[in-house]
Amino acid sequence: MTSNKCFLQVLKGKSTDRVPFWYMRQAGRYLPEYMERRKSAGSFLDLCFSPDFAVEVTLQPLRRYHMDAAILFSDILVVPQALGQHLEFRQGEGPVLTPVDTADKIDLLGMGNFHRHLAPVYETVNRLKIQIPQETALIGFAGAPWTVATYMIQGHGSPDQAVTRSMAFQQEAVFQKLIDLLIKATSEYLLKQIEKGAEVIQLFDTWAGNLPDDQFRKWVIEPTRQIILNIRQNHPDIPIIGFPKGAGCRYPEYIRATGVSAVSIDTTMPLEWVRDHIQPLCPVQGNLDPLLLVAGGDPLEKRVLEILDCLSGGAFIFNLGHGIVPQTPPENVARVSEIIREYQK
After folding, report:
1. Can 65 be counted among the known catalytic residues?
2. Residue 51 in contact with residue 127, Cβ under 8 Å?
3. Would residue 90 show up in a list of annotated catalytic residues for this protein?
4. Which of 51, 94, 125, 237 has the fewest CB atoms within 10 Å, measured from its CB?
């Protein structure tokens, strides 16, 4: 593992001669080779918990597109499963958990089997450290406590997280207990990933944008700040990328209050505002619309160049505003990768 990788240099705020790139959900269902491995593995969770399969699918997009970073193939919901919550992925439904929506149910969760359950994930990180190309950085990740809690309490994803938001308002002490458990579990999970070879950490807070200001500070900023503090006590120099999707004008406050090294910006963020208000604070990653990546053609190429022209003057990593969707043509990903590599800063 070498620290002169372009991706790592940008995260340190250093100038580089080109723009590094990777894509959220770059290993996934849009790739035919992934679908073949998925069939062989059985269920999605079998894929996540088999180091042989998880390493292979992590490496697949690197072979095609030669990104500057590989991200561990796993899922944010392996953490609640390791805490004792039942989890399955159903065809056509996505993740389904047995809701932990009362104090008694939260009390049944615990760390007793946590690291034993996640041992295959740690083994995947360890193998990737050895197998990824020398110039490629390895990203470990986890879901941030607020977003993970929304799935745990409601039992599935939702457009407005109403059940979880109501619990946070009406049973704050109970909800705080769950958040505290997730802070501890997530911190330990990420520390293990770093110990096994992750060079960068990304915290995904997909549902951060649906909270009012006071709740955003309480359930997004504060848990993230505590996790980063826990990590930095052991690894003071590890880069940590925060992704509070939908944070909007609260990105600067999030950056200052949490201590993240960089932020990933979602598709809704105006480029000039990002350049003027976020890039002076930290490196930025983002923010091509994943559906534009599906559409392809001149509109896609035009937007890629607009993003590069606006943000490449500062510390910048090209990425999407969220993950690649299954219907994405692989050739469109190849074209964007080509444009980025050929771009002159």
Report:
1. no
2. yes
3. no
4. 237
pLDDT, tens digit (0-9, with 9 covering 90-100), for 108-131: 999 999 999 999 999 999 999 999
Which of 38, 165, 250, 303 does the annotation list as catalytic? 38
Residue 300 in contact with residue 292, Cβ under 8 Å?
yes
Three-state SS across 116-171?
HHCHHHHHHHHHHHHHCCCCCEEEEEEECHHHHHHHHHHCCCCCCCHHHHHHHHHC
Structure tokens given for 313: 């003057």
Q: Of the residues 151, 189, 251, 254, which is catalytic?
A: 151
| Phi, psi of 316, rounded to the nearest 5 degrees | -145, 135
- Catalytic site residue 127? no
Residue pointed to by tokens 């760390």: 111
Note if 63 is an active site residue: no
Residues of the chain with pLDDT under 70: 1-2
Angle between helices 119-131 and 172-196 (to 10 degrees): 40
Rounded to whole angstroms, how far apart are CA atoms 244 and 203? 8
134 in Cβ contact with 58 (< 8 Å): no
Residues 301 and 339: their CA atoms lie apart, in Å, by: 8
Is-contact 232 201, C-beta < 8 A? no
Q: What angle in degrees, to the nearest 10, is found between the helix axes of 330-342 and 51-65? A: 60
Q: Where are the domains of the chain?
A: 21-286
Q: Which of 29, 64, 217, 232 is catalytic?
A: 29
The catalytic residue among 64, 75, 225, 232 is: 75
Is-catalytic flag, 25?
A: yes
Give me the CATH topology for the region 21-286. Answer: TIM Barrel (3.20.20)
Residue 92: its pLDDT value, please? Answer: 78
Q: What size, in residues, is the chain? A: 345
Which pLDDT does position 344 carry in this prediction? 87
Which of 25, 37, 127, 303 is flagged as catalytic? 25
Tell how far CA 236 is from the center of its chain.
Answer: 20
Q: How many angstroms separate the CA atoms of 58 and 128, rounded?
A: 8
> How far apart, in Å, do the first and last CA atoms of the chain sit?
27
Say how far apart CA 247 and CA 267 lie, in whole Å: 11
